[in-house]
Amino acid sequence: MDWKYRIKKPEQGTPLNWEIYFPPGLATRTTETVKSLLDEIKLPNQPAYRLRTFTEKLKLESANAHQIAYLFEYAHFLRDIRLVIGKSDDWRKGNSPAEEEMQAVVEGALPLAKKLIKSEESIRDGKLKESLHGSYFETEITVTLSLFGDPAYIRSVKSVFPTSAPVPEDLAHALLLYGKDLAGWDDNIDTFFYLPFAGTGTFGTEWAMMENHTATHQLPKKTIFQDLSIYPEKTIAHYQKQKNKEGIKKNSTQLWLDSDPALLTYQQKEKKNWEKLFLENCEWQIETGDFFNTKDPMKLSMYDVSDRESYGVFLPLNPPFGFRKNERTTGDDTIYANIGNHIQDLAESFRNKKRNGLKQFAGFLLCPTEEKWLLVRNQLKGFSQKTIHVTHGGIDLRVLF
Q1: H-helix or E-strand containing 53?
Q2: What is the β-pairing status of strands 311-317 and 358-367?
Q3: Residues near 337 by beta carbon (within 8 Å), at least 6 away in sequence
Q4: Which among 84, 121, 298, 354 would be 20 to 30 A from 398, CA to CA?
Q5: How many whole angstroms from its chain centre is CA 376?
């Protein structure tokens, strides 16, 4: 293979090219957040990177392993980060379909990938090959190596619940970040994190990861990046030290509420798994109950506003999978209007808890159709609102913040 571009023996500070993948529909938001994170890095003599946005990925050029390490550790809204290891326009030689020829080129790039590994014994060829990806544009093919191997949203903490359809962790993380940003959320405020339709608790666990500055290397998973010779271990330790200096104020109490009692055992086990990771008890109250019949959710939790000068409420709403896919017939015509009404009632209830105590009330709702989105939107005319479009499980969703 005639490689017009290939990595030879890069050092950790060598500027390289990368591809960054994200949940569908979040290109603009991802670009802004990635740029913001890269600009946070306080290391001397870093190269000036170039960032270009495409529908399904970002191209990050002239960034070194130290810069990428920060995204790898803390950009939990990303689906994958891939290192460009080779490019060639010497590949369309036969009459085979382009996809077949591309796969042959990708497999032929395995020797390039193996040169980047610290030790040949550290990773099997099969696993390395699975982490190689190819894409082509016009006459040029690009081969990339995934830093995560398995998709980044697999945190290796959550166990499978067979009847659930959870929002992927990267998308959940992105929506929480976006919701906080739109609300101008104050991270130092005491927070009641109320999670109805809790399901497997993904929004709750991702919120906790943000609060704890959880880094990828702290998760119980091994990644390809850790096997690469360019993995900047000392820089990653430096980033963690800087995060710890920022201080972690434990100021959130979570209430998970779901009407399905079959989830209770799973949720309680999930809580214990995350407590092992965080090395502390999590202030998460897990209850079985109905969102619409719960007029005062704080009564179900350990949250007490009487000794707090001010507080905020964050409310992510992800109605059950059957409603998202329009598979449920009973109550489906009114459920989204009822959600809007109940959000209004909750806001009033939280406001009345303590005079001038409620400083922030924010959240979002996943809506499967324009009609259901309008039903909620029309009930929330007193709120600031913004809508974005995302794709989850082949469903186009409107996310109303």
Answers
A1: strand 50-53
A2: parallel
A3: 375, 376, 378, 379
A4: 298
A5: 25
Residue 182: CB atoms within 10 Å? 15
**Beta-strand runs (E) in 289-342:** 311-317
**Which residues of the chain register pLDDT less than 70?**
93-95, 163, 247-250, 321-333
Strand-pairing partners, residue 287, are: 257
Cβ-based neighbour number of residue 155 at 10 Å: 21
CB 276 within 8 A of CB 217: no
In a 3-state reduction of DSSP, which class is residue 52?
strand
Structural element, H or E, at residue 343: helix 335-351
pLDDT tens figures, 247-305 = 656 689 999 999 999 999 999 999 999 999 999 999 999 999 999 999 999 999 989 89
Q: 79-122: per-residue pLDDT in tens?
A: 999 999 999 887 776 667 778 888 888 988 999 999 999 887 77
pLDDT, residue 33, reads 97
- The string of DSSP letters for 256-289 reads EEES-GGGHHHHHHHHHHHHHHHTS---EEEEE-
φ/ψ of residue 320, rounded to 5: -55, 155
Q: Edge to edge, what strands does the sheet with 311-317 contain?
A: 284-288, 252-258, 191-195, 311-317, 358-367, 395-400, 387-392
Q: Which residue has the tokens 């990925």?
A: 57
d(CA 38, CA 304): 39
